[in-house]
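User: Run a structure prediction on this.
Assistant: Running it now.
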Amino acid sequence: MPTSPAEDAAPPPCATPPRLLALAAFRFPHGDAISNRLLQLARSATPPGTPTLVVNDWPDDGTRPPADPPLPPGVRLISLGGGAHGPLARWLRRRARPLRVLTALRRAGVRPRDLTGVYLPLSLWDLTTWAVFRSATRCPVTVDVLERHDPEQFPRGRLTPYFLRHRWSLFLAGRLADRVIAVSETIAGHFVRCDRPTLVVPPQVDLAEHSAPAAPPPLAEGVRLLYAGSAGPKDLLSVVLAGVRGLPRAERDRVHLVIAGFDRDRAASLSDLDEGLLTELADRITFLGRVPRDRVLAELRRSHFSVLVRPLAGYAQAGFPSKVPESLAAGCPVLLNSTSDLGRYVVDGREGLVLAGPTADDVRNGLARALALDDAAWRAMSRAARERAGSFDYRLWAPVVSAFVAGPGAAPDGAPARSASAASSSGVSR
């Protein structure tokens, strides 16, 4: 099987041998939400005095991994892949990924048996990965689970290959993973019932990235809303626009929605937005297209509210939208309906405005409340949002996450301990 130049070059030896290995297969370290999830989790899981080594299998999308990406202290990176290949070559590379990672460790002078923990997202978890790393490292393998898909999310329902792979990975994790990190209490409950040691860790942030306070225009000039992300079917943007349309004309003209993540031409294919609403409210919407993370953070600081409306479906209750902690950290309150564990962190009138439900009328009522705020009330809400964001800072989570991922406990050769971690982690986060 051919290798790319990135794999042919031997990584430099690690001066201080790592004790924790994290696996990735995306544009790490600043590609998307899952990339940021792994970065912050790696920082919080790093044992004191030793680095965490991330081995990232760069996606075969025609791009190349950056030569010298910015990384925080305590995190080291080896990038694999980065070349475009045919379907068969890509399939073979994915199947051989565990062996390619072990080869990269050998070239970097890292002995697998010296590791005390291996961490990877559910998307990279399969039988081969489990077998290879259990036998090569003899240390706990921790799986991070961020979502639980429903058949209704896919046009072919239960026959969709991606859905089948996802549910198969969940099944394997519930029976083979040494430890599980769950993004929400709903997901944690599934693995606790499977008798897996489980820790609930919501999306994490680095508060140091959000040093500048939010400074949007005065509310007298109108309410500026921001939606950032790739909506797909999970976020109800059409409901947001319908709520804007339901306002009286004078109030509607004071609402402006900025959408970052896709452009106007792709709105219909990447979200639930329809042409009628887009045309009717064209003067109320600005599309930024796909923008870098720094631009999203800057837009948060210029917005009065980030907006998130999700259906009351199983997948929405299981996940935890990472855009909420990011918004709070920027001092930007959130306009949302409460799903998953969000009610623990966003209290109506304090860190944001909580809608009664996911309908257009609920959004309209929430927007009317936002328009009635004065600048002093909004600034108080912004300060509360920033304070709440401390619950998500990776530094707060470092002791419990590092002890869970790389500490003694559920050794691979022993019986898994019963987990009470969902309750204990909630105590940390509140």
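The mean pLDDT is 87.
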